[in-house]
Amino acid sequence: MVLISAQPYDYELPVSSSLALLIIDMQRDFLEPGGFGELLGNNVSRLQEIVPTVKLLLEAFRSQKLPIFHTVEGHLPDLSDCPRAKQRRGQGELRIGDVGPMGRILVLGEPGNAIIPQLEPLPNETVITKPGKGAFYGTKLDTLLHEQEITHLIIAGVTTEVCVQTTMREANDRGFECLLVEDATESYFPEFKQSTLEMIRAQGGIVGWTAPAANVLQALEKSHN
User: Fold this and answer.
1) pLDDT tens-place string over residues 64-91
2) For the whole model, what pTM was predicted?
3) Which positions are catalytic?
4) What pLDDT, in 10s, does the model give residues 1-46?
5) Please, which residues have CB within 8 angstroms of residue 160's CB and are 6 or more apart in sequence?
């Protein structure tokens, strides 16, 4: 048995390929200047700091030929899958569907909607496009995970308290065992990240586990030796 040293207690790695990496929304719109995140008034440099750590996780899963899923939040060009309430939310000059510095904001296929080049998916990796915050709503993620008999998810990405947490709660309700990598997730608001980590692992791991990337990488290496 291989364990990841985690909170609130050790996370047991499955012995088969039932483990997958799920990387949430590492998109230009959220991480780069001129994207939706910055247009909302946020400091995107906070999110950029986790890129090297996410890349380490990505490379580790690739080297061990474990399943990898990426998500992208975005909408169809006609915005038919974007609720009116979501499109109108906020009071910025630019909203979803408007033309920004990197193309139409949160519209699939636009330059800003792409995953950042450092983490660009390989052809054999699954990219889930999602219209909501959670990766299960309006997508085929649940079906794909079950088809591949995946039961355990190592999760990274942004932002911690919004799309990451929503996805973890959705996954937890569906019976998946989830671990969030503490230094491979980030928020524009450090206090929100910390609160989310504490909520996830509260009450004996009511939503899941958390652990630093070093612990995850060490356990992955041990499990394949």
Assistant:
1) 999 999 999 999 999 999 999 998 876 6
2) 0.96
3) 25, 130, 163
4) 899 999 999 999 987 779 999 999 999 999 999 888 998 889 999 9
5) 180, 185, 186, 187, 192, 193, 196, 197
Question: What SS3 state is found at 134?
Answer: coil
Contact 72, 130 (CB under 8 A): yes
| pLDDT tens sequence across 107-126 | 999 999 999 999 999 999 99
Which amino acid type is present at position 142? D
Closest by Cα among 54, 73, 167, 68 to 126:
68
- Strands across the sheet containing 177-186: 126-130, 68-73, 19-24, 152-158, 177-186, 209-211
For tokens 């079950």, the residue is: 146
Distance of CA 15 to the CA centre of its chain: 24
DSSP for 23-77 reads EE--BHHHHSTTSHHHHTT--THHHHTTHHHHHHHHHHHHHTT--EEEEEE-B-T
Contact 40, 172 (CB under 8 A): no
Amino acid identity of 44?
V
DSSP 8-state symbol, 133: S
* Crossing angle of helices 165-173 and 190-205, rounded to 10°: 20
